[in-house]
Hints:
Blueprint: E1 6-9, E2 11-13, E3 17-24, H1 41-63, H2 68-81, H3 84-97, H4 101-118, H5 122-125, H6 128-143, E4 159-162, H7 167-176, E5 180-183, H8 191-199, E6 203-205, H9 210-213, E7 219-223, E8 228-231, H10 235-257, E9 272-277, H11 283-286, E10 294-298, H12 300-304, H13 317-330, E11 334-338, H14 367-373, H15 375-388, E12 393-398, H16 404-423, E13 433-438, H17 441-445, H18 447-450, E14 456-459, H19 461-468, H20 487-502, E15 507-509, H21 520-526, E16 530-533, H22 535-547, H23 550-562, H24 566-584
Parallel strand pairs: 3-4, 4-5, 5-6, 9-10, 9-16, 10-11, 11-12, 12-13, 13-14, 14-15
Antiparallel strand pairs: 1-8, 2-6, 3-7, 7-8
Amino acid sequence: MPDKRTILKGNGIGDYVSIGDSFLYLNSLITPMYNIEKEDVEEEYIRLDKAIEQSKEQIEYLIKNVDSNLKNILSMHILLIQDPVIIKQVKDEVKNRLLNVEYVYDTVITEYFNKISAFNNQMLSERASDIIDIKGRVIRNLLNPSTDSSSFSIPKECIVISKTLTPSDVLRFNSIGVGGFIVEGGGYTSHAAILAKSFGIPTIFNVENITNRAKNGRKIIIDCRSDIVILNPNQKDTYNYSILSENLKKYKEQSIKDAKEKAITKDNVEIKINANIDIPEEMESIIKYGIDSIGLYRTEFLYIYSDDGNTCALPTEERQFNVYKKIASSANGKVIIRTLDIGGDKMAPSLGVINVKEDNPFLGWRAIRFCLSNKKIFKNQIRALLRASVYGNIEIMIPMISTLEEFLEAKKFINETKEELKKENIAYNDNIKIGALIETPSAAVIIDLLIEETDFISIGSNDLTQYVLACDRTNEKLTYLYNSIDISVLRILKHIIKTAKDNNKLVTLCGEMGGVPKYTPILLGLGIRELSMSVTSVAEVKNVIRAVSIEECEKLVDSMLENKNNDFSKSVLESFIKKLQTQKV
């Protein structure tokens, strides 16, 4: 009797579909444990140093073959592998416990992983897979230094099914040419997800118990647009998805060809597209997409790693100034720089002693709350931003605003810092714009008051969605609840955008929602005319914009807001997008 056709839900990356044979990838690593003699300790140190150097060389080889966005991720792996604090701890434990180095390395890194995972937040818990990735690479090189740990054989164009997915897994499988990934855990902001999306590999995360439900070598379908996996599809499924896959392939190829062109709707409305970046090196890749402005530069990376790999040193004013200057002078348009969004639920080693573990970290001491309580740290950043403002069109964005008083205090602090620089005869742009990132329901409710004090506003859709729905977006058990197009989210977005437009205030959106092509018509229909996103999303988003009219998008939003059922609204959107894709190809 044939296996039953089964549809499973998950969280898809991008708008991809794929058909292939399943390949169960249960990549377990058994680390031996044995005692050593005192005279063998130095030899264990040498083995560790060689394994770390070999791991570094392997990653450097990979870096040569990827673009600047991916180099950032892999460079972080090198910094973690060479972390002097971790290496010292491993060597000390080898000496004190007289145990083999691979076992000690395993326990030390696992302990580090557990500490990081304990902070229930997106920036850290999803980066924990990077730590496991690094651990596996070093231990494999310790166990078998003569073998390239990245080499193994699997069927080409298969659908890889696994419990977890690391960046190294994505790089290895991409070189083989797999058809897609289905993963039990993970999330769209993990480095593995970022890599998979950049390579255009169809990927679905959070598919419950998939490694036990799927069998090797069976036909399987991934539909990232509908967030589903079809086990044992019937002939009709296979036929329909084969045609759809080919159409989408042509659609994406055309999108990339047209990426440099302006994004203008069918009724001749230009939509401004900006880029979200994490490091200055990403500036190189935005040129091919015809992007002039940076809609969001996240400054947290400066506080996580220093240039020399020291994870415990706060970035100096001078270092920050040089980074901001480089970005500002490289851009043809504006550069919106978000002030430090860390603390409470987000941890940087450089902030070690002032980090606090909280019971409710997402509601805790973070972003502007943290900065206004640590004004020395905040002062260094603001001075650097103001100094760099003479080298380009820098704008300052304050995140996590909850009250008007909070924004006014931050604004006052910036103005006081201007006066300091003035007395020191240091140049800065006195007309630098200061905006607010709207990501709390309270800020949305008082948006009419905030826009009187801001030069611009930007919507952070990730946090805003989670706060509106009282739903931790990193909790895999709540993925069913976290919905960017829930009617409550759409209503609050409409309120923010309409109030801003009624008061002639610029409003942009820089959250993950802005880079999801299927949500583009909704945002246009709500009134957004400027979007910021990862450069990997630009081509497809621009293509969607060119295929629609504002009138069509407004009708779509009206129909979604009139419905009380989220599932029905989702089906309305899916029909709209499928129609667009059919028209395009």
